[in-house]
Amino acid sequence: MNLNENEKPIGVFDSGIGGLTVVKRIASTLPNENIIYFGDTARVPYGSKSNLTVIEYSLQDARFLINKGVKAIVVACNTASSIALDELRKHFALPIIGMIEPGAQAAKAATKSGKIGVIGTRATIGNKAYSEAIRKLDAKLDVVERACPLFVPLAEEGWIDHKATYEIAEEYLKELRSLNIDTLVLGCTHYPILSKVIKKVIGENVTLIDSGVASAEIVENELNKINLLTENKLQGKQEFYVSDIPVKFKEVADLFLGRTINHVHKVDLEVLTEI
Amino acid sequence: MNLNENEKPIGVFDSGIGGLTVVKRIASTLPNENIIYFGDTARVPYGSKSNLTVIEYSLQDARFLINKGVKAIVVACNTASSIALDELRKHFALPIIGMIEPGAQAAKAATKSGKIGVIGTRATIGNKAYSEAIRKLDAKLDVVERACPLFVPLAEEGWIDHKATYEIAEEYLKELRSLNIDTLVLGCTHYPILSKVIKKVIGENVTLIDSGVASAEIVENELNKINLLTENKLQGKQEFYVSDIPVKFKEVADLFLGRTINHVHKVDLEVLTEI
Hints:
2 copies of one chain form a homodimer.
Chain A: H1 3-6, E1 10-14, H2 20-29, E2 35-39, H3 51-67, E3 72-75, H4 78-91, E4 96-97, H5 100-110, E5 115-120, H6 122-126, H7 129-137, E6 142-147, H8 151-157, H9 163-178, E7 183-187, H10 195-202, E8 207-210, H11 211-225, E9 238-242, H12 249-257, E10 265-266, H13 269-274
Parallel strand pairs in A: 1-2, 1-3, 2-9, 3-4, 5-6, 5-7, 7-8, 9-10
């Protein structure tokens, strides 16, 4: 065992800054690990783009992290996880953990009635990523999916308890509610920000699955299995890279990560497309 | 006068497909002109990105159109117009028409009370592009600006008469309404799609300025001045290029352009970043 390998950081990438909610989960599960985050804010969002484009961007994002010397990659973007995971695993040998399988496993573990709802971006839902992953675990489970494209901009606006957010949640979730699901997968990293509204509208008795929490546990298991967990006992360090620093970056980063980011590195798009 | 020059197409670019509302206006004002449209759907939206990134993307978009042999360029994106117009005019010699000045002129012509409101994306409003352009025309005019980031995703969802859209418009427009403006500039190409809601919320007596209509008139004047209007008497042809074909492309294009696009060309991002 090479000690040095263990002390490499975990790489996390996302289409933008939604994945900071996943960093928060990983840091809570694995507080001693160093984390390098890359957010592709110059090309965000991925959720409305084509599969080919999402695969191309994801390969670039992963390459950027690998060049930074990470020991594993977490694809903290449900859209990229649902579209690009196989392609990423074909290209790179290190452990790559997505959002879909962990979320599907957590949903299977949580449901009693066997009726599961999944919400996500248009791309994630269009690819039926969650329903296929859940049915692969147990073909008897009943899965209904629904795209909620306005939830991302609502979360980024910080309208986490606004009347309009309730109206929109009502429209998006009414069908799922009428189907009496007992478990709802939040299949987009932005959605945990809106969990209060979602919970109120879908019903307090419905279990919400945060794929970020589920994937943080898988990261721990995977690294443990191959003896790659850090032996560091101090608090892990985090570094943040983005391809663009958007106007509202600081505000949104605070809301998503739950603490202030003091320094963020800007990566030129040329660097990304040439590696 | 080189006849050939007149028969070149007008180039129109936008961050995505919102600019199709501008194509609709140009085609209505100048029905015999050929139009080439480029929508940067692989990197949409520009409205939440940094100035440097918006300038870089805009230069690439313009270069793409120039390589297609256009005689003039319409920057059918308020964000790009507000940030990149000077830079574009420095780089390229052909006529380049943005959205801001035409919209500002139309607002000045329309207002009686001298109180003008402007709504747009976070980037357009953050740059104070409209208020500066309007005050340059007449320093006595009173301009109040407000960013409405959720209007773009609402228009793309097609929620043009939804209860939630009214709620959101109510939140965004209440301050402007209380200031008794008599003219409101729709400073984003997506907003004319929501004009029914906006009109109801801001008040039926407020004149809405569609910058697309205003800029189409400027295009006509500019081309007329330099004798570059087409002499073609048949209906002009339109060609559409995008950097990505998003999941909902057809639906949204129909809504924005007012007719079906039968064929759209996909441009690889590499082509764009290398020209």
